[in-house]
Amino acid sequence: MKKAMLVAAFAVVALFTLGLCYPAPKGDAQSGRPKATQAHYERLWAWLKQSDYTKWNAPNGKAPDFQEGHSPHGALIKTYLSERAAKDRKDLADGSVIVKENYGPDKKLMAITVMHRSKGYDAKNGDWYYAKYMPDGKIDVTPPEMKSMPVAGKFKMCIECHSGAAGGDFLFFND
After folding, report:
1. Separation between Cα atoms, residue 80 and residue 115, nearest integer Å
2. What are the strands, taking DSSP E only, across the chain?
3. What is the pTM of this model?
């Protein structure tokens, strides 16, 4: 019995490590669909913490360092690629995750933005799921006049900006 439990626990940890333990996102912040028991952005954040994304490499294969940022991201940014994303930075595979820490000019962390590629999620927009977290890990929300919706999913502002990336891949770091 103990051996079976250990094997099961190992399997769960292995699935999280591979980024496969949570399903593809079903809804999005702007669809008005009811929220699942635990939203995809909550599972994604838990996985990011568990995998310690701050140990991932930057797109150049080295430890991330401050780079100049552009609106709506911070004045300075640090970009991290999951192992799956780093394997092929030009053609990021299903399950790839990109994390961008957004800093003010004083190097104070302001937000953490994430792109998670999930095949079949949003084919016309590169199958990217977007999320914006506050430094404490809580999902950012739109202002009350925009219904205080989570900044996650098929978020219009993210899609509009990232659709302008060269190559049609919704990414700017590999242009």
Report:
1. 11
2. 67-68, 76-81, 97-103, 109-117, 128-133, 152-153
3. 0.77
